[in-house]
Amino acid sequence: IFKFLGAISVDLGQDRIKPYLPTILTPLYRELNSTYAEQDPTLKNLSQEIIELLKKLVGLEAFSLAFSSVQKQANQKRAMRKKQRALQTVANPDIAARRKLKRHKNKAETRKRKIESLRPTCKAKRPRSHALKDLAMVE
């Protein structure tokens, strides 16, 4: 998709690409600022190359305006999601509590994995299997 965006922008030229610049820059910006653990470095390099190409194509001023608008929009979305999550915590405490328990459980499992990878001789404690308790129909 990034190669396609670059090819289209070169094909359209300087004047016809300007209205579509924020639309083209949105996925490129998202890829540059992503913080995923398993991020593909080739995608990041490709997005950087296409951004440089767009910079040369439309000029620094037009590019800067479009890029700043994309940046601003992404920050607003992020802030809105954060605010919505905080409101959901107050409105639905049971959902928030479930999310918190899940996060703590994942954190503990990550810690155990890290201990096992650093010290293979030392095994982290695993939760006991409650097979009979799980089979019982108790509420």
TrEMBL record:
Which intervals of the chain form a coiled coil?
none
Instruction: List GO terms (cellular component aspect).
Output: 90S preribosome; small-subunit processome
Q: Which InterPro entries match?
A: SSU_processome_comp_20 (IPR052575), UTP20_C (IPR057525)
Q: Which Pfam families match?
A: UTP20_C
Q: Which residues form the U3 small nucleolar RNA-associated protein 20 C-terminal domain?
A: 1-116
Q: What is this protein called?
A: UTP20 protein
This chain is encoded by the gene named Utp20
